[in-house]
Design a protein that fits this description.
With 199 residues, the protein is of the alpha/beta class. The chain is 45% helix and 12% strand. The radius of gyration is 18 Å and the shape is globular.
Amino acid sequence: MQATINQEIQVLVEGRSTQVFIAALLQHLKFPEIEVHDFGGLKDLPRFLRAFAASPGFRQRVRSLGIIRDAEVQGSGPARQSVHDILRSDDLPLLGQTSVPCTSVYILPDDNRPGMLETLCLMSVQTDPAMHCVESYLECLATQQLSIINLEKAKVQAFLASRPKFVAHVGEAANKGYWPWENTAFSALKKFLEELVRR
């Protein structure tokens, strides 16, 4: 499926919740010139990029392209390399000094450590009083020998339950203003987005 391209700066993200989250952050930063698309999961990225690069206006209009994905457990190095391998493939020569558009990659949570979008959000609210209750709740579950498959997603859900109106996803929470954008946890991601605009 071809995408509609309206802006010179495009960002591709992993998942709908991340798309909503990044759009909320861009609104906070007052960067209306950045358009955000959800490419699905990593396995979907090659097919999405081929269709995206074939979309009307891509070569003529897009000057800056950012790709954002989660590090997961393997860390930022392998996660970045996986995206670079896709971008360097024969039919997608979108990475390098001569690439048009200029393409760069950001790995959540902070372009360095393992984790995901939820990790980043938790980093931003570590000093929130509700986090003490979140930790106590999870410790209580552990004493009952109740296993949690994804601890960080569970922590986010417990934290969001403490907000005035519960929402289920980090993207929706961003729209509600539940993540403190001025927290230094978001500094690296903000810098990445700012650099896309400055190119």
